[in-house]
Amino acid sequence: MSSWANGVVNGGVSFWYADDGLPAAREPLSGDASADVVIVGGGYTGLWTAYYLKKAAPFLRITVLEQKFCGYGASGRNGGWLYNGVAGRDRYARLHGRDAAVRLQRAMNDTVGEVIAVAEAEGVDADVHRGGVLEVATTPAQLARLRAFHEHEAAYGEKDRELYGARETAARIRVADAVGSTWTPHGARLHPVKLVKGLAAVVEALGVTVHESTPVTEIRPKHAVTPYGTVRAPYVLRCTEGFTASLKGQKRTWLPMNSSMIATEPLTGEQWAAIGWDGRETLGDMAHAYMYAQRTADGRIALGGRGVPYRFGSRTDNDGRTQEATVEALREILTRLFPSLAGVRVQHAWSGVLGVPRDWCATVTLDRATGLGWAGGYVGSGVATANLAARTLRDLVQQDSGQGGRTELTDLPWVNHKVRKWEPEPFRWLGVHGMYATYRAADRRELLNPGRGSSRLARVADRVAGRN
Ligand SMILES: Cc1cc2nc3c(=O)[nH]c(=O)nc-3n(C[C@H](O)[C@H](O)[C@H](O)COP(=O)(O)OP(=O)(O)OC[C@H]3O[C@@H](n4cnc5c(N)ncnc54)[C@H](O)[C@@H]3O)c2cc1C
């Protein structure tokens, strides 16, 4: 469902569906069934898992159960940054040693190429452009963080990352007040929905059963329960990310965090000439409440950031409808970065949910005692991570069923990581809103007092929220 206000299409799941419309749902489950593996959730995690398992063991009977349609969640709404970031790497370094975290980082670097290669091999055209990731600083405080970030990434073995001054940054993209940037080749821009739709078609063609309009209400060992019947399988894999709280018993597992986006109308040649951005890098900044953006294949800017971060009681979604204040805040970021676009029309606004574990660490787990598995908690970095998680789930299932042994992936430090649940309400709501209010206050302080360096407020918020 979408609505119009000030000429902006608001909701409708996301802008990425604007051209072709929402897909017609596949047939729902009709009665009890059985499978070898049942996967709950038809986003990147669920579909990649189905893909790799079926490729590894074509005889497996795999069923995907999706509450609406494949790509209804974050996989159909994201910013299209296919990049090598993974939530929790620093904590994994503290828990398992730096070498283990470096292995995780290397696996993530390779994952960018893996997604591109498989999409190409399977004939999925997702408007991929491999221009790397450019992150820009626009205040002295942001520049200090940018330099520290650059050093930090290099220490995880990223020797091909580059640091640019103001002039080199402007040669790539004219962001107002940019004082420096850092660039890594480990990233690409893509069209999220083209990828998820393509993947769903590929797994179906491989012989995976995909039921849509089929909400799973409860997951138990060997059972995925829906209003239309129960699917029994030795392995039940939960790939529900930001929607996990809607499953029985999972209310406090991963917090559903909102992220919101806008897309402009297509820019003219003249407007693009003023901005540059010929390399089509994915673009981010170093604000505490950061923004992320891409130059779309059809010549728009799609830009996202935090809106209302979290809704009381872990409520999740209303087809992407976004508060007016959030649309305005994103429009302001757009015109602050690119003042020449002050008159440009925003055509579409939407939101989606991310999954945030209590310790902000992405995980992949298979409980060998029950056959229950899950992957997610990617926070805001799941486009590539979901692929690595899916290959890891494949290896864990293969290992458990005696068809494979330990692999490089099953030895990664995020495998079988345990974390406590979120606090009950109202503490959950107060904590998250407090954290984001603090980030915004820290950004405002840095803008108003450019000489004073990085605000301590944000560090305090990080600590309180369990991010550090
Ligand atoms: C606005 C936004 C921008 C983002 N930008 C980026 C980005 O640029 N780069 C990046 O790396 N990451 C980004 N992310 C995060 C990234 O999109 C996600 O991490 C990733 O898509 C997660 O994939 P997933 O398959 O695990 O979850 P989802 O895509 O959310 O899929 C879960 C699926 O499970 C289904 N489901 C849920 N519960 C049930 C149930 N009970 N029964 C049946 N089905 C169910 C849902 O309908 C959904 O289709 C962004 C996220 C958002 C919201």
TrEMBL record:
A family per Pfam: DAO
SUPFAM superfamilies referenced in this protein's UniProt entry, alphabetically: FAD/NAD(P)-binding domain (SSF51905)
Family matches, as InterPro entries: FAD-dep_OxRdtase (IPR006076), FAD/NAD-bd_sf (IPR036188)
The organism of origin for this protein: Streptomyces lucensis JCM 4490
Name assigned to this protein: FAD-dependent oxidoreductase
Annotated ranges, domain FAD dependent oxidoreductase: 36-396
Highest taxon in the source lineage: Bacteria
CC per GO annotation: cytoplasm
